Amino acid sequence: MTQPLQEEFKVFQQMENELKAAHPGKYVLIKDSKLIGTYNSPSEAISEAYSRFGNVPFFIKQIATQ
Amino acid sequence: MPSFTIRDPQIRSTGMVAPVSVCIHSDAEAPFKKSGIELPKPINTHAKIDTGADRSVIGSGIAKLLGLKPAGVCSVDTPSSKNFLCYEYALRLVFPNDVVWQGIMLELPAAKESVEILIGRDILGHGALIYIGYDNSFSLCF
Questions:
Q1: Whole-model pTM?
Q2: Which helix (H) or strand (E) holds B119?
Q3: B18-127: which CATH number, 3.90.550.10, 3.30.365.10, 2.120.10.30, 2.40.70.10?
Q4: B90 contacts in A (CB within 8 Å)?
Q5: What digits encode the pLDDT tens for the residues A15-65?
């Protein structure tokens, strides 16, 4: 059985450079290999994640600044 | 802005330690209620405040006891391995006097489950910490 969020982590690493250029410092939400959105704070990302998906694994990470 | 103060004559040896209740994140309550699952009871434990730690961590028992699902993954270097993947969880910390912080914390896996918490500069960066040595006390607010 695969560990949760392995796919999401891979997707984030693949998109990282593109995200750094377009959304530095913001928070990204990824679920099931899809980029759901970028947010100004972890609270906004968490709120969106729970509201949209419920109590399931989801991936939130701050995008590094350049 | 509420704050709390802990006065401990042993503070020089034990460090800054505060009682804390660990709960699910407030945004997680609605999904629990919607699925008819009783909200997990808060875990009463202690948090050690460490200004030398850049990242706050929770013991490996907390996420399991609260039924939390991971909210992220982080690559961590340990003395014995590089790029070790650790999970992150969204949760809420309730300190004395209703001082609350909520956000994402890193779980440090260990051979033995624990409910210990370490508060580092990532969380302290959202608040104000005052340590008064001659009074054996510290205060924290967010």
A1: 0.92
A2: strand B117-119
A3: 2.40.70.10
A4: 46, 50, 60
A5: 999 999 999 999 999 998 899 999 999 999 999 999 999 999 999 999 998
